[in-house]
Amino acid sequence: MFGPYLEAVRRQAPLIHNITNYVTANDCANLLLACGASPIMADDPAEVSEVQTACAGLHLNLGTLHTGTVAALLSAGCTANALGHPIVLDPVGVGISALRGTTARQLLAELHITVIRGNLSEIKVLARGSGNVHGVDADAADALTEQTLDRVIPMVKDLARRTGAVVAVSGAIDLVADGKTAYCIRNGCAMMRRVTGTGCQLSALTAAFVAASPDKPLAAAAAAVTAMGLCGQIAQSRLTPGEGNAALHSRIIDAMYNLTPRQLEEGERFETR
Amino acid sequence: MFGPYLEAVRRQAPLIHNITNYVTANDCANLLLACGASPIMADDPAEVSEVQTACAGLHLNLGTLHTGTVAALLSAGCTANALGHPIVLDPVGVGISALRGTTARQLLAELHITVIRGNLSEIKVLARGSGNVHGVDADAADALTEQTLDRVIPMVKDLARRTGAVVAVSGAIDLVADGKTAYCIRNGCAMMRRVTGTGCQLSALTAAFVAASPDKPLAAAAAAVTAMGLCGQIAQSRLTPGEGNAALHSRIIDAMYNLTPRQLEEGERFETR
Amino acid sequence: MFGPYLEAVRRQAPLIHNITNYVTANDCANLLLACGASPIMADDPAEVSEVQTACAGLHLNLGTLHTGTVAALLSAGCTANALGHPIVLDPVGVGISALRGTTARQLLAELHITVIRGNLSEIKVLARGSGNVHGVDADAADALTEQTLDRVIPMVKDLARRTGAVVAVSGAIDLVADGKTAYCIRNGCAMMRRVTGTGCQLSALTAAFVAASPDKPLAAAAAAVTAMGLCGQIAQSRLTPGEGNAALHSRIIDAMYNLTPRQLEEGERFETR
């Protein structure tokens, strides 16, 4: 089902503007290039509106957030909204500080966000105003598994309804939902959590997929999540003895570079609820 | 012909000061170490003049430009000029915003730049005041190929003449010219465009090559461009099935680490016009 | 001897807050994940105290130091001190500018630093107020070898005594000392110097080891230094022809990912003086 969404990215090569952290910016850029899109990183309030005008989508990421960057997030976001470009918001570590919490709420209040993508701890903070936080990772109490799925889906659909955004939650099972439909995606591998920035990369990828299929943000976001998970599986299957998270890191990007629409369709594992 | 320029870098191990973007700074540092030079990144206006004093060359790069960094670019540049250290300017994405355009023009007006290195879209913006821009990549209309070479060379030589800088243009064919002579270099491979930061890395490398051979900036810059292209070819030839742009990324640096002056001379493909 | 210190990291998975440079932040994060810890990077003065509260240790690194970040270093450090969290200070390139020198001295005066980790040039600047500096690398005159060891140990112990910190010096031989005891560690390989950020990564790793064994900072820091050196050796032994510093870069992280307490104990090479 998701093959055409990857094809659309390859055909359109959307230019994606990332206002993101310095920890994983290189990985986001290389993953965007791997999937067939183009990246640009620019975060000075003086230029982000112009930069966004030249782009097809926007990825806003709160990792290593600076006070001075909030104006850039808003400026680029307003331009994206005015031009109808999709925005993906990644509220990295949103529960860990007032700066991140306030900024995330302000972005949700002032902008129309197309997709919110985070782990369950981050999504709970946005949905309920509070949650367990373990740095930038999901707290152990917030594992998204078969056991917790039934309780999580209504919360996620409710957040989607209230914000008008598609909500994508990463975990052992990935969940991508709007107010009505939830995709439960069973691709990915646990070892991806040991590579920094797989979440940020997925947010950048989601921006590319949604930019290339702007009329279908739910399915496009689900396709991006599935593609990333499948690339994690492919990468893990190619590890040799003695290799670890650095090898996985490179191989995920390589898997995306080589991923075909057909391979994506054969590997996708999901159901809707 | 270019072997001695690599030898000079290996022998002198020049310390290169980079004021550059956070997306590819790690790659610039590792490529400088690979070629035998040493990197330092420092961009606070309070320290860049002192830092440059301790260095042998300067790489100014406009990717992820911040308004507050412009003073650092100028301060480090003035010190480099006063001490006779070469400066390489990489006008990343210069057509995309007024901030980048204004800054590039100010640097060219107030500093003596030794080498300007960019893609054809960026060089056109500097040469003509306008150009097609596709983010940080060359626009499709600005491919540097056999067909466009004859038209591009005079423009590049003219820019070199007006600025007093060597101008290095990256594309399917690379062009390195001063006001009189243009090296047309046929090393490199198309897949390098799918690795973020190969341009930034080349700018850093060029600073190392010119710093080690300060009396011959044209040939040294051409040697750096040739070495980078050859490393791209070597890296690509070593890819195995299933590998992609992340593997190429590492292998380019590894190829530079192992590149010998003799290998460079055997692999160099260029003519002058 | 050092196996239990690695075990403690794996068992506790300490969350380490890094205020560090943008050149090697990705590597620090992946190395922390490889050893079993978790990373978070946050450097805005508005949030670092809250972030540190949620963490178990703090890594302060002066690479790419910004004037505006000094307040964040102090704020996070005060919180760490108040909560009894260990702080590792990496005075990257401290001799190269007044900004770095003044900041390092201020941090040592206002905070209780648990471990100072740097190369011999950097440590000399802190110990004597001056030293030879070659960018962010140790000056050739500051090699830490069998010949210089006897002269260096008293200086390092004296700095430890005056600051109350464990002092870890990286070189051909690594030295980790408090006021009384010095571990002379003979793991590691020369090629690690050709990978940017191995020092920064070691500082982050040291923060994780000390955070997991807070009552034994000397032995925990020595264990981290030994583990990093051993991973360098393992990584180098796995290089194949044509590979270079980029491959070493990945393989060091992979070696840490796979390092067992038993392997550490079998590979450790040190004596105390």
The largest chain-to-chain contact, stated as pair and per-chain residue counts, equals:
A-B, 32 and 34 residues
Q: Please name the CATH architecture of chain A.
A: 3-Layer(aba) Sandwich
Q: What is the average per-residue confidence, as pLDDT of chain A, rounded to a whole number?
A: 96
Helix fraction of chain A by DSSP (H/I, runs of at least 4): 40-55%
- N-to-C series of helices and strands of chain A: HEHEHEHEHEHHEEEHHHHE
What is the structural class of chain A? alpha/beta
Low-confidence stretches of chain A: none
What is the total tally of β strands of chain A? 9
Strand content of chain A: 5-15%
What's the end-to-end separation of chain A, in Å? 16 Å
**What CATH first level of chain A would be assigned?**
Alpha Beta
Give a quick account of the main beta sheet of chain A: strands, pairing sense, barrel closure. 9 strands, mixed
* Alpha plus pi helix count of chain A: 11
How does the overall form of chain A come out from the CA principal axes?
globular
Number of domains of chain A: 1
In brief:
Three copies of one chain form a homotrimer. With 273 residues, chain A is an alpha/beta fold. Chain A is 51% helix and 14% strand.
Detailed description of the structure:
The structure is a homotrimer of 273-residue chains. Helix content of chain A is 51%, strand content 14%. Chain A is an alpha/beta fold. Chain A has one domain: Ribokinase (UDP-N-acetylmuramoyl-L-alanine:D-glutamate ligase). The first copy, chain A, has a 9-stranded mixed beta sheet, sandwiched between helices. Chain A is globular, with a radius of gyration of 17 Å. The relative contact order of chain A is 0.16. The mean pLDDT of chain A is 96. Chains in contact: A-B, A-C, B-C. The A-B interface holds A 15, 22, 25-26, 29-30, 33-34, 38-44, 46-47, 50-51, 54-55, 238, 249-258 and B 21-24, 26-27, 63-67, 93, 96-100, 133-137, 194-197, 242-247, 249-250.
